Amino acid sequence: MKIRQRPWTKRAAAIISLVAVTLPLATNVAHASTAAQLAPQRAIYGYFMDTYKQNVSTYKTAANNPMIGMLAEFSNYYADGKNLNKALMKENIDKSAQITQTRTPAEEERSYLTDRRDLRYSVINALGPYAPAFIKNASAQTPYHTMPSTPEPVNQKHAHVNWADEYSKLGPIVAFMNHNSYTAYSNTGIVKSIVRYKRPYRWSNEVKPLPALSKIMAAAPATDFDFASGHTTTGFEDGLSLAYAFPERFQELLTRSSEIGLDRVIAGRHSPLAVMGGRMAGTAVVASALNNPSNQQMMKQAYDAAHSDALLGSKDSAVHDDFADYQKNREDYRYRMTYGFKQIGNPNVDMHVPKGAEALLATRLPYLTDTQRRDVLFTTGMPSGYPLMDDAEGWGRLDLFSAASGYGKFNDAVTVKMNAAKGGFNAQDNWRNDISGKGALIKAGSGALQLSGDNTYAGGATVTGGTLQLASATAAGKGNVQINRGQLQLCAQKVTVKGRYQQAKSGQLTLAKNAHLTIKKTAKLAGTLKLTGGQLKNGAKLLTFRHHQGKFTHVTGLPTGWHVVYTTHAVKLVK
């Protein structure tokens, strides 16, 4: 909705409130307990999730409007039409120019379609092999399929259709996304009317508007401001809503949401700082909606619909997946968090996790507690000091892409209790982050947790149930490994345990016949050694260690005539 311009005196009062919220806070949480570190930090407006419905034109200051308060850092750079940080504002426009000058034809068409399409439709392609089923079973549609070869006229009417049907097979997902998208509470127009920061193509002729939209952009009124990007806000609302319902594509949907922001820069519509603000706004609005008790039934219905045969059961592996490359997705997403801006503020402020932000991970990490999900957000958050991102609550520094890959650091003992009977991520998950810290991992329950990162956590790993899979040479970190019950499975050919290894009689070690487990210290062996695929080689070393006690009670998976022998420093295959 459009916000009527207010008198300068009222706007100036609002700017004073904006600036007040961004004063640096003294912190000493480095020595606090984990509980204190994870406690939410109250902003001048309170907590976004408690006050998000106050983002309406009735509330016009940082103290009573959470959207204004959360994005208040921008007022240190530019406020009420006044340039307060010329170097940063120049860099912002220079980045806009560089992106518009180097866009490819494919990026031009994508950014045009992002501009024209309903953004709820625009995130569907992030579903990859599930996208055709979603389009069919949600009756999703768009009138925009190609970019015109000539500029659209100023009076071109924007075609509007119902993007999807709430009464379709996937109607509960459609209803859920409709509820969270294009809402009054996510409106960035109030912030725009206060800050009054011009669109990038109006700052510099070096910013090249998308040709197909050039006439429309040139004719836009002077009050059509840049910060913060409403399209990006909506893109994150749509992507995160669909990711909650269908977490199997959580990171792909996040990447597409960030791409919607980039598309706005590519088209010349918005600057990098404007889309960074949009990411923060959309994230906070969805988290607030997920915490609203009145939305819980709708959320469950959306999740259940997504996991029916109409979507999860209708995968088309022949479909091209634009987001199939995890590493590229991660690099793209993290770049778009900062757009290459350098840290200009204090780089040593500890992470704050906003109140209610853990709800964003509820379906992606369902086997963790709310406190653990907050810890994941705490240990994967971005460093402080980047422009715009140091809001009081911590919305700007949330790295949800990394958080979806588990902990970034074990600050204490972390117990992961999975229940395979529940299926999905409860049965199998993969933590791809490089996990550091002094803490330890305790794998409990019945599911399988895979560690794929270059891990350095020092507290060791203990398996008391289910399966712990080691998928990199350093997955076990730097500590001891103990298998009390359940199994340790090597998914990499070579894995190193840098401490001691101990396996009880109820434990199992599973590895391929050509895999090798290096134990830097001592080994205490019992239980089962299970060998799977791979080539048999006489004399091959399966385990090496400084020295060992005991032997495996059972060895399975060997053909007749093969067995294992124990030497002072190894367990070998022998025929």
From TrEMBL:
- Give the range the annotation lists for the signal sequence: 1-32
Query: By its UniProt entry, which InterPro entries does this protein fall under?
Result: Autotrns_rpt, PAP2/HPO, PAP2/HPO_sf, Pectin_lyase_fold/virulence
Give all residue intervals belonging to the Phosphatidic acid phosphatase type 2/haloperoxidase domain. 188-290
Alphabetically ordered keywords of this record: Signal
Gene3D superfamilies (UniProt xref): Phosphatidic acid phosphatase type 2/haloperoxidase
Transmembrane segments annotated in the record for this chain: none
Enumerate the NCBIfam families for this protein. Answer: autotrns_rpt
Protein name, as recorded: Phosphatase PAP2 family protein
Give the originating organism: Levilactobacillus suantsaiihabitans
